[in-house]
Amino acid sequence: MLRMVWLEISIRTEPVGGSEPWNRLREKLANFPAQGGRNIFAAWPNIDEHPGFRRELVITARQENRVVGGMAVLTGHLRLGESRLKTAFFYTPAVHPEYVKKGLGAKLLEHAWQTAAQHGFRLAWSSGHSIFEKKHGFVPLHSARNQCITIEKSALPACCHKSIARPIRLSDLSFVRMLHERDEQDAWGSILRTTGHFSFFWHTWKDCRIVSDLQGKMLGYYLCRIGPDSYLDILELSSLKEDYFSELFGQIRRHAGDAGKSSVRFFLPPAHAGLVFLSRSGCPLNVTTEKSSSRRGSAGVFALMNCADALEDMIPEWERRLNTLDFLGKTTKCTLVVARESGPWTIRSARGAVSIVPGMGANRVILDRDEMVSLLLGNISDGEWTAHRTSHLDQDAKALVKTLFLPRIPYIWHMDRPELLTGRN
Question: Which residue stretches of 119-269 are H helix?
Fold first, then answer.
């Protein structure tokens, strides 16, 4: 009986100039139950205003022209140092009650995977579909706990009355974006932020505070939210100059007092300049963890979609590392053999320049797909793993592999995490 039902259902991507108006299609999908997680069409009526929305990446299932299911794939770019990897974000399928638990959600996900691959995506993100994720080798970008810095309000620098904090205005967005892009240099694994991000999430950004001096010159900003219990949460923080941090923290201390909070939690990258300033000032920093609602981690899971193009996209970052770590006079190469890929690929470094050529060569490193994406993201930091996999390589090739795949601490800002759209955070 199930087989006969499947013969009547067609799964397709929506054409850009489709005959069905978008609002009507979205309303239909908003009324269907989500297959794990939250129905993004119901939660975000203005999803078409998201900067990563593409009508041609909306997948629908139809039975005789009647919509019985659908899902959205949003676009973005994962920033890994100097490299930018085009990333597809897979959101929870919504399925008509008649087809719940009949495999339609899985069919939609598979069709979306094939569609994204055809559109040239390098990486994919998923919001928690275990069977689909296991099949395609998804790995978490973050651990299952969010690291944050907790500080007692009284330990922060006191406000010197040389600055004021005011609500953000639309005219301030260029200033905020400029500071954010500067701070992003130290956030490995961040998602590139477009101008449309601020308008789409304005319901959250309107709580941002601009700190300026008494003459109106903007010194920095902080994005806060009222946390649970006695906490004021700071999701973003940036200062035009290091000297201005004392004024920013003074305003945060005053904000916490006005909100009746005794502690402040900072959700910032480990190397953030603001945390470095507090540490140098002798402020007692308490590193704590916040348990994520998903065992897959606080920023979802990622998988490799197109290994060859992903390697090509990593060249700018790899060349930066080689030039920084004194590889300019060396010429060496290694070969990556990735399971279930059409490779292998030979990576050659010559005087700081990197080239990637299909084909088998010397100094082979054999990897699974999940290991490959973990290396790209910087997740693998186990020295024993690296030593075991590179023990047969010559010395120059060992140094090359360790340089290309440096262990990092990936970090995605809270306001850029895909879970913001799914309600899983």
Answer: 130-136, 173-183, 195-200, 202-205, 245-258
d(CA 320, CA 397): 18
Fold that domain 306-404 belongs to in CATH = Nonspecific Lipid-transfer Protein; Chain A (3.30.1050)
pLDDT digits (tens, 9 = 90+) for 142-190: 654 567 889 999 999 887 778 999 999 999 999 999 999 888 877 788 8
Q: Does domain 2-137 have CATH number 3.40.630.30?
A: yes
> How far is Cα 177 from Cα 51, in angstroms, rounded to an integer?
15
User: Residue 82 has which token pair?
Assistant: 């100097």
Q: Can you tell me the distance from the alpha carbon of 390 to that of 364, in angstroms, rounded to the nearest whole number?
A: 9
Q: Which CATH number fits domain 145-296+410-420: 3.30.70.141, 3.40.630.30, 3.30.450.40, 1.10.1040.10?
A: 3.40.630.30
The CA distance from 207 to 372, in Å, is 40
Per-residue tokens: 351 = 């005087």
Exposure string of 351-390, with b = 16+ CB inside 10 Å and e = fewer, is: ebebebeeeeeebebebebbbbbbbbbbbbeeeeebeebb
pLDDT, tens only, 291-308: 554 444 556 789 999 999
